[in-house]
Fold:
Amino acid sequence: MTQHDPEAWLDLTRQALAPRDADHARVLAALEQRLDLPSNDVPSELACNQRQELHSTHAPTSSLPLGIPSAFMRWALSAVVPLAGAAAIGLFLTTRSATPKAPVLRPATKVAAAVTEPSLPDVLDKTIAQVKEATEPKSPEAAPTVHPGKEKKPQRKKCRTAKGTERPCTTIKSTETAIASEPPPPAAAPTSSLSKELAALREAQRALREGQAAHALSVLTSFEAAAPGPGAMQEERHAAATMARCTLAQRGETKQLYDEFMQRYPNSAYAARLQRTCLSKSAR
Amino acid sequence: MSQSVRQPLISQLSAADEASGVARTVYASRTSATSADTFRTFYSEHFAFVWRCLGALGVPTASQDDAAQEVFVVVHRRLPEFRGESSVRTWLYGIVRNVAANARRSQRRKGGLAELQGDELSDQPDPLRNLETREAADFVQRFLSQLDDEKRDLFVLALVEQLSMPEIAPVLGVPLNTAYTRLRALRLEFQSALAQYRAVPP
Structure:
């Protein structure tokens, strides 16, 4: 140290004491779980936007993005009606045996999605890009597990009518897989593992709050498979996974799950919550 | 939230908070129940302050996560009571100080030595700068550990966090002029310790 000025030393001390971004995110994630705060609106919206973006780029049969204002949708629809009409006529002429309804609708939404995508508001584009960075799945198979949730209702409805199943993501998965085989998927942007870990943990927490323990577990398992090794929030992930397992487990198994967690993290802040979830079930 | 509802909550504040004059500083804009968004905003605005204060008050790096969580758990509980009649940071510091004291006690019970700050400064691209930062933090931590609680509060708030003296005096529970006098004395003490350290490096 060459500086003799006390103020310089104080400046350096301030720098040394300053938290890093990881500290900020880690403590916030732990607090969200500890205080049982409802999930941040921004990430859930971002997740929704990302899903919409995936649909508009990879799934031509999907509906228009949910976040687009109705006026904008009207504009987009009016812009593509001539194109859709032309496409419909073309299809009608080439496949006379087909019912007119399906071919008319399919190209219409396809073109609408293509037209609206570049015209999205800047803010939406920005958030989509952020989410893409933060939560892009490693494989097409992982995509449905990363984007569940209640904000998906309109699409869930659509999938049900199309497929007649209870699982809305099945359609998304199949269309994405099919589309992904045509053009090469864009290379994943370099992302921090902490962002992915945070996204997975938030998703799992949201699923747990909504009573979807199986989904929470699958999110965490997918994350661990994609990013093996200890993460910055390993304890939080294990706590969430144990909570999900306790919810799903038979009566006799929950105590063992709780004991295993406590053995690994004896001073965990999640002990009380896990006790409530796991031991109350085993005592019943 | 009506005054009749708020009053019993204020009475639940600790004696240390009362002494520091913190208990009466309640946030005007947060009269309704603490929403998650309000809490997150508060967290984003003040996390760095809390983290630095915890470090400066001698909370070991290994316990800093837990201590920061404790602080914000208390904040989450008490934020609706805060009316904003004085600085939010001095109110927050009252909580930080109590949590830090508990963390230090816990560390002493475990018999562990408090780690000095600056152990993980690998973000610094310049190794020399990294070394300097670590050395400064090391020195200041040692200096702070020799001070009594009142001087330590003054040092952290005035010299590390650079709060104004009118903000700090109520925390210390002393008149403004007394606070200025103590700060002058503390500055001299710090300079003297630094000169001594420079003369005889460890």
User: Anything to note?
Assistant: The CA atoms of residues 249 and 257 of chain A lie 9 Å apart. Residues 41-71, 97-125, 135-190 of chain A have pLDDT under 50 and may be disordered.
